[in-house]
Design goal:
By secondary structure, the chain is α+β, with helices and mostly antiparallel strands. The chain has a single domain (30-121), classed as Beta Barrel (OB fold (Dihydrolipoamide Acetyltransferase, E2P)). 37% of the residues lie in helices and 31% in strands. The protein has 4 helices and 6 strands, in the order H-E-H-H-E-E-H-E-E-E. A 5-stranded mixed beta barrel has the order 1-2-3-5-4. The relative contact order is 0.19.
Amino acid sequence: MRRFVLTGCSLLLVLGMLSSTRAAHEGGGKEVSVKGEVIDTFCYTTMGAKGPSHKQCGIDCAHKGIPVGLLESTGKMHILLPTKDKTALSDDVINRMGETVTVTGHEHMKGGLAFLTAESVK
């Protein structure tokens, strides 16, 4: 009897752990691929600056801490996030400023804003 109870409790514990792991993964946003132009959000928002002629200024702004965005052709903008907390956005993304790319990552929506972790850029 004791063995039966111990086995049952162990099974419940394992199922609970799997369920919480799955919930945590699902809470991380859905994986998407988004095509758009890499922009620096300050210059684009205040002056409409974008494109290849704004590349170096955008790179400089990103290195100074201005958030980087991905502007879709529809006008929707995703704010790009690094893949881990307390890290900077990858130079692979920043150096593509003013270019049209496809970013794959996890999409998050908060307060009416769209965010995307930049896990790969092509």
